[in-house]
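Dear colleague,

Thank you for sharing your sequence with our group. We've completed the structure prediction you requested, and as agreed, I am returning the results in plain text so they can be pasted directly into your records. Please verify that the sequence below matches your submission; if there's any discrepancy, let me know and we will rerun it promptly.
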Amino acid sequence: MRDAELVDAAREGDAAAFGELVERYQRLVFRVALSALGSREEAEDAAQDAFLAAYRKLHMFRGEASFKTWLLAITWRHALDRRGSVARRLRVFLSPDEHSWPDAVQPGPSQEQALVHDELRRRVRAVVKTLPRGYRDALLLANTGEHTFEEIGQVLGIPTGTAKWRVVEAKRQLKRKLVGLGYVDA
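Please find the predicted structure tokens below.
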């Protein structure tokens, strides 16, 4: 069944139809939440919140965008809300999860290479956090490798061209900062 048919069935009370939509998109929703939050536990909670919100707001889905895009926009908003919460900031400050962000670099075979890569990964994460929010959000969504620029634009509520520009600018700023720190050649 197509998404539109499943949405119609779910609107009419067919829980299995919505369950099929959840199955189709649960990995993608989780990855979007993980991109925004950096923590697996937080991403799982945000993904659950997003699916619950989508189910409750299903009557509001107009079909102007695809169901997938609509769901990802809900997910992104829930993840940003969670990311900005004071309680989350306190938890992250008190017990940072060093291994929750996607790897920036695959560890090498030697212990020394693994240490160098771990340091680079920490630096990249730290530098990404310093990017302006609009650039950072576009870059994180783009780096999942699962979204077109059109979808990124729809999720962030910006034109497609702006989404492309923000990703390019985020990469440029990231490289400039890493060059300044001596981690990347110019």
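Summary note from our side: Residues 15-37 form the longest helix (23 residues).

Kind regards,
the structure core
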